[in-house]
Design brief:
The structure is a homodimer of 192-residue chains. Chain A contains 8 helices and 3 strands. In chain A, α2 packs across α3 and α6 packs antiparallel against α8 (154-191). The first copy, chain A, is mainly α and 192 residues long. A 3-stranded antiparallel beta sheet of chain A has the order 1-3-2. In chain A, 66% of the residues lie in helices and 9% in strands. Chain A has helices at residues 2-11, 18-27, 37-49, 74-85, 96-101, 109-138, 143-149, 154-191; strands at residues 16-17, 53-60, 65-72. Chain A folds into 2 domains: 2-85, Arc Repressor Mutant, subunit A, CATH 1.10.10.10; 96-191. The interface between A and B is large, with 66 and 66 residues. Chains A, B: Pfam families: PadR, Vir_act_alpha_C.
């Protein structure tokens, strides 16, 4: 259901073709809910079949061909609202990084060090991505957000912007905590 | 592979029956890699078939019946070592909490507030669990850890303890970051 909700949320920014949706997805919501193009296209067709999206042909190129443009229907908006309102089921911990860390006595110190360095590199990349998104959202230069904001008045637009910022600040907070933890672990390894 | 690795790691603490393994799992490694009993028992049998565990019947009760006791084989120890040494594949972000947060304009402020409160409650529970584990590990009163430490000399035991602590400190760091983030979001909601 999350990919479906992510696509509904994306397309509420304004009607878009499947190609546009996949491209915009990768540049916005795909940063917090990753999906490949090969997951996105079939899901759009299923969402149309389920009445959450409507379609119309739009001209494409100069040879009289058309592409399918998707718009979120009233049912689609209702489904998005239901999803945003419903409580999440929190799952119990299942973190491969913590699991491996708990048993590092089964490898040598150099390998253990490398694991923590890779953890820092991964979360540094995530942190950088999130900081770039925060900058584009704050300056309102993000293309999908700009399009979305056209349909809101000033006070509403401020709320819309704030929720996007909250999401990416959460990504930053988590990745920063992971980096700090891995650096602390590297220090402990050194002392052992 | 993670459940298999978690079970191998657990049973290196010393031979145990399937029932014992499931009980000890829930009280130790299951806190960082959750699995249900109905996942654990079939996995133990598959691990035996794959040569990672050996079995022998041990007396059980007073009626001459027996239970199967599992021991990690040399192949099992090698598999555990390989898993601990191999790099992790980091997956791209897919966090339902961030995804929902990014689109909270689709619900009312009271519901948004409730979502963040539930997030705080969930992570407070995780934090408490991890702090309890840290206390038991530090005082070396944790029954599975005590059994494990019998097979190590003092210097090695210190490393074994330190890796368990690192893992749970990571759980704490993550949950504390989530709590802080959700509290900041509640403050922002208030101001909107």
């Amino acid at each position: 259901m999350s990919l479906r909700s992510a696509l509904l949320a994306l397309i509420t920014a304004g009607p878009m073709t499947g190609y546009d949706a996949a491209k915009r997805f990768a540049g916005s919501v795909g940063n917090i809910w990753y999906a490949s193009d090969s997951q996105i296209y079939p899901e759009l067709r299923k969402m149309e079949a389920d009445g959450l999206l409507s379609t119309r042909p739009v001209p494409w190129g100069s040879k009289g061909t058309t592409k399918t443009e998707y718009t979120v229907t009233e049912d689609g908006k209702a489904a998005l609202g239901d999803w945003v309102a419903s409580p999440l089921t929190y799952t119990l911990e299942r973190d491969p990084v913590r699991l491996r860390t708990a048993y590092l006595e089964w490898t040598d110190p150099a390998t253990a060090r490398q694991h923590f360095q890779e953890h820092i590199e991964h979360h540094s990349r995530v942190l950088q991505m999130a900081e770039e998104q925060i900058e584009e959202i704050t300056r309102r230069t993000h293309p999908t957000l700009r399009r979305r904001l056209e349909t809101y008045d000033d006070a509403e637009a401020r709320r819309v912007v704030e929720f996007k910022l909250m999401a990416y600040r959460g990504v930053c907070a988590r990745s920063q905590a992971e980096i700090d933890w891995a650096e602390e672990c590297l220090g402990t390894l050194q002392a052992l």
